[in-house]
Design goal:
The protein is an all-alpha fold. 83% of the residues lie in helices and 0% in strands. It has three helices and no strands. The chain is elongated, with a radius of gyration of 16 Å.
Length: 105
């Protein structure tokens, strides 16, 4: 892996680290809204479903990018960062997907 590519990946990882807490809060909110709707036996508002779709699409795109980077034989420390962030995105996606799956995204 070239130094320019490593530098670019580091910059992208910094952006991802800033975005993760925002996405995490969004994921928690969506999970709570879906569970509230389930308890109340009502449909989830279309805006909530759109937010969930958007979050799932965004995190899926980043997951795929991280997976690609991981396969590029990055230095050990960078590979570890990539795996940790990918794991965080996976956990977030699974929670949102699980909570909203009953409502057919």
């Amino acid at each position: 892996m070239e130094n320019d590519q490593i530098t670019d990946i580091h910059k992208q990882i910094l952006r991802l680290r800033e975005a993760l807490p925002v996405w995490g809060a969004e994921a928690n909110d969506l999970v709570e809204l879906a569970r509230n709707a389930e308890r109340a036996a009502t449909a989830v508002d279309e805006r909530v479903l759109q937010r969930a779709r958007g979050l799932l699409e965004t995190t899926k795109g980043w997951h795929d990018t991280l997976l690609y980077w991981e396969k590029q034989e990055a230095p050990a420390a960078l590979s570890a960062d990539i795996r940790v962030i990918r794991g965080s995105l996976n956990a977030m996606r699974l929670e949102v997907d699980s909570a909203t799956s009953k409502f057919r995204l």
